[in-house]
Amino acid sequence: MARNLGIFLTICGLLLGLSTASDWNILNQKAGKYGFEITLKNYCESWRMNVELHNTRDFDIVPEECVQYIGKYMTSTQYKVDSEMTIDECRVYVSTSCGLQKDGADAWIFDVDDTLLSTVPYYKKNGYGGKKLNSTAFEEWMKQGKATALEHSLKFFNELKGLGVQIILVSSRREFLRSATVDNLVDVGYHGWKTLILRGEEDENMNIQKFKAEVRKQLISSGYRIWGILGDQWSSIQGLPTAKRTFKLPNPLYYVA
């Protein structure tokens, strides 16, 4: 966090004609020679944007000064609109560029957490990413099956199902959470997926990107045409082989490599 903020402050100091970065205060900034103000909100929005652009990577926690901003974003209309825009782009792609053959081999991959199910209720009670994740506590929360549906994803899920596309769920959740995950998905309205793939014991030492790429390799070898992937982490959509198109939902709460 300190390194990223230091870089940002240095750049702002140059733009505003300040003599040194130490003269610059993010909470008390006046208009510079370019006629704009740099505020804490500006910095946090820039940080969030660079997470989505995959410029900011491998962070353990949200910067302390941005926790409140990220919390507001994740519960805001803007987050919903950003997510809806992603889903709309998926729909355009499916309707214009997917030559679905409807032979049982057309497939679409969904991630689970913060793609189909929202973990925001957990993070709301645990500092909106401002605290290092307690994996044990997080998995205990998952076992309760209290994650809510992301309505935009649920609608698209059902639209694909109606087109005869095989829906494959690939999650970094561990295998012992299968029963709780299935129950949670069904309880909030997700029905009729083809398969749910979770990490077994043999996968737990593998990074998530490699794990999901290996799953795709096996699916393609089995004859599936993977038209698209929808996920909230870059590790869900990067790596070879991949789908014909990939789509990322916004999520600045955490980073999964």
From TrEMBL:
Gene Ontology molecular-function annotations: acid phosphatase activity
Superkingdom assignment: Eukaryota
Keywords: Glycoprotein, Signal
Signal sequence interval, chain numbering: 1-21
Sequence similarity: Belongs to the APS1/VSP family.
Protein name: HAD superfamily
Species for this entry: Perilla frutescens var. hirtella
